[in-house]
Design goal:
Chain lengths: 255, 379
């Protein structure tokens, strides 16, 4: 029976971020959610379990307030979860998150077959944690996965690459990072949410970990992107093109 | 005092919101226009356990509290008031009454298919000549051996043409006055029970409303809900629970009116600036947000009393009265904010305004709520 691990992150729901005067971002009434692609990772692990048996273990790293995210994850079909939390984990750098996940998996989940991660988180979208985690654990990593199956001790994945679709196989245990096309995450029903609180959660504190884990990132400022238009119309003839080049030069875009 | 929802209630709100954005919002305008019952949507609601939230799991429900049911009705109504109401009356009245008053056998036979959402329920009380004045009802159930024979016509019955299970209120002993009414559980297909004329309504158009006619309709005594003569008290229980649902529906409509008004006021430019920066519009939106907050707190308070096993008749009436009247008032303002665009079919605020009006009428008119409230505070 395979043991499937799903890694996920509890992030700000961007739909609630408001743009204040002067482009400043207002986070005062934001809500949180499991990152979009991480939901795909959880869903895929749960589907594989439902089809082939086994169990799904969720692992997440975050601030203590992310506890609601653990419940959310469990309501999506995971059997149990490891919740690694500390108030300082708000500003972790992706390599640190990967190191924490690697340590927790190595020391607390003795045997596993597959680790599923989202292609990137919904906030930083650095696409770093999955591949780094695979590297730290010394297992194969398959990214950009849009279709996945497990047969015997092997995974078979369709990867979406620039020029088409690449089909690869890898021996288990292995790690995949999934794209949103891989599935449609379920919306938990009422009972799923009520049952989630009854599933086992193992809390792991910073003190139980060995790595150097002070937050390495510092957010200096955050502003909304601005799009400025000059409204200048240019004809598609030699004179228009000359004017276009001239205006780019004047505004400093080309020299 | 604690104004915080539980983690489960918050997650369930997020989930039903996501469900609505994906499944309800995209069809709401169309089912309103076509007066169509979205059977496929109700199958999905049943699958998610949304059709029996406060009913214990052993009877097919989800085993959550009444607050959670109110939150779900609110979110459904924010997208489609008809859908919110159909769930509200099905759960808040049909399921709740059998759960609270039914025998073990009745719960197994009727409540399980209702709470799982396989069946739909209807509350059958109003008659052509008996609205607020329930005593003016004329439908009778005459005892005949181990059965009752029903005759009469009920009207304005929500889910009337669709229901699998009807909760019917009629006289078993008219001479006994308030103690002469009884309530029955009657499955569809019972000979002599016939949904009558289907009504075309101003709003709430995808909710199906009809007459229900009884002609020598023979019902086994085993289908009596509660004791003979307890009908009027049972109707009171139905109203208490149902009114919290209607209040939640009003809250959902108010939230939708506010969402739409803010969105439009920020993007509509007149006289050189978004109309949201014009004080006349900004103040309408301020009042809307304030009344929404008040309506939500009144509604949640009534649900909280219910969940904490305290009397909530007065509070349910207050919540229903306030939410209904504020929903009507502010959907009119939302149309005003939208100007001509808000008066055109397809604008969401136009539908919200039509859907709001019924809140002041059914499950006790605003006048009936004032009778209940004044009757309590002047006692």
């Amino acid at each position: 029976m395979p043991t499937l691990i799903a890694c996920f992150k509890w992030v700000v729901d961007e739909a609630y971020i408001r743009r204040g005067p002067g482009g400043a971002l207002d986070f005062s009434s934001v809500d949180y959610k499991i990152g979009e692609y991480d939901r795909n990772a959880i869903e895929e692990a749960v589907r594989l379990r439902d089809a082939g048996g086994g169990s799904v273990i969720g692992v997440t790293v975050g601030v203590p307030e992310s506890a609601k995210g653990v419940k959310d994850g469990l309501s999506r079909g995971m059997d149990q979860a490891f919740f690694v939390s500390d108030p300082s984990f708000r500003d972790l750098e992706p390599s640190q998150t990967a190191a924490i996940l690697a340590e927790v998996i190595r020391t607390r989940i003795p045997q596993y077959d597959l680790i599923a991660c989202g292609e990137g988180s919904s906030d930083l979208y650095a696409q770093q944690v999955g591949p780094r985690l695979a590297e730290l654990l010394g297992i194969p990593c398959v990214c950009f996965v849009q279709k996945l199956s497990l047969e015997g001790g092997t995974l078979r994945a369709e990867r979406r690459v620039e020029d088409g679709v690449e089909v690869v196989e890898a021996p288990l245990p292995a790690l995949v990072t999934v794209l949103p096309d891989i599935n449609t995450p379920r919306i938990p029903g009422v009972k799923d949410t009520l049952m989630a609180g009854k599933k086992p959660v193992t809390a792991v504190t910073k003190e139980e970990l060995t790595g150097r884990l002070e937050g390495a990132l510092k957010t200096e400022a955050m502003t909304a992107s601005r799009l400025e238009r000059t409204g200048e119309k240019l004809a598609a003839d030699a004179a228009g093109i000359a004017r276009f080049v001239d205006s780019l030069r004047k505004s400093g875009w080309i020299t | 005092m604690n104004f915080k929802l539980t983690e489960e209630q918050e997650l369930i709100r997020k989930n039903i919101r996501e469900f609505c954005v994906k499944n309800v919002e995209p069809i709401a305008a169309e089912i309103d226009e076509k007066e169509a019952h979205p059977a496929d949507l109700f199958r999905k609601l049943a699958e998610g356990g949304w059709m029996g939230i406060p009913i214990p799991a052993q009877y097919g429900g989800s085993g959550a509290d009444y607050m959670t049911h109110a939150i779900v009705v609110e979110e459904l109504s924010r997208s489609c008031s008809s859908t919110g109401f159909t769930v509200s009356i099905h759960v808040g009245i049909a399921c709740m009454l059998i759960n609270l008053l039914g025998s073990e056998e009745q719960k197994k036979k009727f409540l399980v298919p209702l709470a799982t959402g396989q069946h739909l329920g209807a509350f059958v009380l109003t008659e052509p000549g008996a609205g607020t004045d329930v005593m003016a009802a004329t439908t009778t159930a005459a005892k005949d051996g181990d059965a009752y024979v029903l005759n009469g016509t009920k009207t304005f019955i929500s889910n009337g043409p669709l229901a699998d299970t009807y909760l019917v209120f009629c006289w078993t002993d008219k001479a006994a006055g308030r103690k002469g009414m009884s309530s029955f559980i009657i499955p569809k297909g019972t000979p002599g029970l016939k949904p009558g004329e289907h009504f075309h309504k101003m709003g709430l158009r995808s909710s199906q409303t009809s007459e229900v006619v009884f002609k020598d309709c023979r019902v086994p005594a085993a289908n009596l809900l509660g004791a003979e003569g307890a009908g009027m008290a049972n109707a009171g229980v139905a109203f208490d629970h149902g009114r919290v649902g209607i209040a939640a529906q009003g809250v959902g409509i108010l939230q939708a009116a506010l969402d739409e008004s803010i969105r439009y006021a920020k993007q509509r430019v007149q006289m050189g600036s978004p109309i949201a920066r014009h004080q006349a519009i900004a103040w309408m939106i301020a009042d809307m947000a304030t009344d929404l907050q008040a309506a939500r707190f009144l509604t949640y308070y009534a649900a909280w009393l219910k969940d904490n096993k305290q009397p909530f008749t007065k509070e349910a009436s207050m919540a229903k009265l306030f939410a209904a009247e504020k929903a009507m008032h502010h959907t009119t303002k939302a149309v005003q904010i939208h100007g001509g665009y808000g008066y055109i079919k397809g604008a969401k605020v136009e539908r919200l305004m039509r859907d709001a009006k019924i809140l002041e009428i059914y499950e006790g008119t605003s006048e009936a709520q004032r009778m209940v409230i004044s009757g309590t505070v002047l006692r």
